[in-house]
Amino acid sequence: MDTTASPGATRPGTPTTWRLRVRLDDRPGALARMTTRLAARDCNVLGLSVLPVPGGVVDEIVVSTPPGTAPSRLIDEIRAEGGRCVGITRADMHQVVDRTTAALRAAGAALRDPSSTPESVRALLGADSVTVADTDEGTDEGGHRAVLRLGDGTTLVARRGWAPFTEVELARAAALGEVLTAGEVAAGSPSAVITSTGAGVVLRTGTPEDAEAVAALHARCSAQTLFARYHAGLRTLPRRWLHRLLQPPRGTTLLALCGTRVIGMAQLIRTNDPAEAEISVLVEDGWQRTGLGSAMIGRLGAVARGAGHRRMIAWCLPSEVGFERAAMSSGLPVSVRREDDMVRVALAVGADRVREARVGR
């Protein structure tokens, strides 16, 4: 049975690039005949690589198709030569680059910014998502799930629906892990930022041990600040919310600390749309407008990229301008529109975005 990861239909008039993985009969000239068939349909083969797998090889082909060509047409041509499409997904031009270059770029990006390590691994593997996990629990899901362990104990879990990971790809990821371990890169490690006032602040993932400090943060925030975050008249944080805030089942919580005091908190929560994640930010009143919110948004942008999201969405009250201002200063492309009685702020988290280390600029 062919595996086609639901690539979706093409829009009329729009050329599309596809990444296919194909198993062909072991006959001389089979690959040449298949590419000839694709060429007859005005398809342009942009890249070709051979991946050894148990029992043979899989050919990976990146092909640009003319406007209106449905992916089912490509699969029909492969079948006509006795082949089987084991995976197909949309691709872009950066996936045509050779694997050595891709690996070096991935390593360089992670060494420059450890928080981008999941995104680097995701790009190297062509995965749908790569997330930091506390433990390695679960099966390999038929080859669609892979685990990478870094030397500091960090565990990264990669998932890819359109095609199983091959041994060659897993070896590349393991080699990248060795490079990052040698460079003491930790994907989930704390990072330091400097606010516009010159104060040093540490950003790190929240844990249940931070419950008291997070409760104290909420107690110090004004009613206006809490209302802007929760859109409800809170004055103190209900204790039953603390665990869910610090360890959300569908996302990540980031804390900002000055010394041992939590002065800010941001969350990234997965939605039902794989392309989107919802983001929220809370900054203590005295630390607002110092670049701290922008720093947390930028850090969660790296997390979102690694998880395979394309954009982060925030819902704000029309009178609330703090999040929009921080988003504009984060270095990420921002779009704003009014929907009913709320303002929708969307931040694009494309893989080519690089944030400066210093905030408040």
Backbone shape:
elongated
The level-1 CATH class of the largest domain: Alpha Beta
The amount of beta strand, in percent, is: 25-35%
**If you compute it from the alpha carbons, what radius of gyration comes out, rounded to the nearest whole angstrom?**
23 Å
What is the mean pLDDT? 82
Helix content: 25-40%
C-alpha end-to-end distance: 54 Å
Strand order of the largest sheet: 8-9-10-11-12-13-15-14
Order of helices and strands: EHEEHEHHEEEHEEHHHEEEHEHEE
Number of strands: 15
If you consult CATH, what is the topology of the largest domain? Aminopeptidase
CATH architecture assignment of the largest domain:
3-Layer(aba) Sandwich
- Name the CATH homologous superfamily of the largest domain: Gcn5-related N-acetyltransferase (GNAT)
What is the makeup of the main sheet? 8 strands, mixed
Tally of distinct domains: 3
Secondary structural class = alpha+beta
Note poorly predicted spans.
1-13, 351-361
Put simply, the count of helices is 10
Could you please describe the fold and organization of this structure?
By secondary structure, this protein is of the alpha+beta class. It folds into 3 domains: 16-96, 2-Layer Sandwich (Alpha-Beta Plaits); 99-182, no CATH class; 191-348, Aminopeptidase. Helices cover 30% and strands 29% of the residues. It is built from 10 helices and 15 strands. The protein has helices at residues 30-40, 71-80, 99-112, 117-125, 167-182, 211-220, 223-230, 239-246, 292-306, 322-328, and strands at residues 16-23, 44-53, 56-65, 84-90, 129-133, 145-149, 155-159, 191-194, 200-205, 251-258, 261-270, 276-283, 311-316, 334-339, 342-348. Strands 8-9-10-11-12-13-15-14 form an 8-stranded mixed beta sheet, sandwiched between helices. The protein has a 4-stranded antiparallel beta sheet with strand order 2-3-1-4, covered by helices on one side. Strands 5-7-6 form a 3-stranded antiparallel beta sheet. Helix 9 (292-306) links the parallel strand 12 and strand 13 (311-316). The longest helix has 16 residues, at 167-182. The N and C termini lie far apart (54 Å). Mean pLDDT is 82; it is low at 1-13 and 351-361.
